[in-house]
Design goal:
Length: about 160
């Protein structure tokens, strides 16, 4: 298993990984319409765009993408960053790959320069992020209008 920076030629395969994960894992917490909207939003073209303003990483095993994660500036701030686009194929979940993605993101320059890191979390991923040391932003455990929780970690 290797973790490396995203390349534009990864975009179609990565979009497929995200779609499969959303349809298989996140479907237990969200409607089909919600999931399909997310899939349209995280298509190959948008992943290339996202890689221009974040450091997007892919996890590969045997030349196959099995997961991803990104980190970037929180609304352009120098001392705050956000985690984005963290997915692991369903058949690889529970094997420490998500932890390795978070560890990689927490060694990135965007993380190291930040005093605070925020992550918009799906209902599905909330317990995983809490295990990784993130907690509800301002102690508020409420879903926003996009049906996401906001978590944060201070350094």
């Amino acid at each position: 298993m290797i973790i490396r920076r995203f390349k534009n030629e990864d975009s179609v395969e990565l979009a497929g990984v995200i779609a499969k994960t959303l349809r298989t894992t996140n479907i237990k917490d969200y409607s089909v319409d919600y999931i399909e909207n997310d899939i349209r939003f995280l298509n190959a073209e948008k992943l290339i765009e996202r890689s221009k303003w974040t450091n997007l990483y892919v996890v590969c095993e045997d030349n196959r993408i099995i997961g991803c994660g990104a980190i970037g500036s929180y609304w352009g701030k120098e001392d705050e960053s956000s985690l984005f686009t963290i997915f692991v194929l369903p058949e690889y979940q529970g094997k420490g790959i998500g932890r390795k993605i978070i560890e990689t993101l927490e060694q990135d320059d965007y993380f190291l320069r930040a005093k605070r890191i925020e992550i918009p979390s799906s209902i599905t991923a909330i317990e995983f992020y809490k295990k990784m040391g993130y907690d509800y932003k301002n102690g508020i455990a409420e879903l926003d209008d996009e049906k996401l929780y906001h978590l944060e970690k201070f350094r």
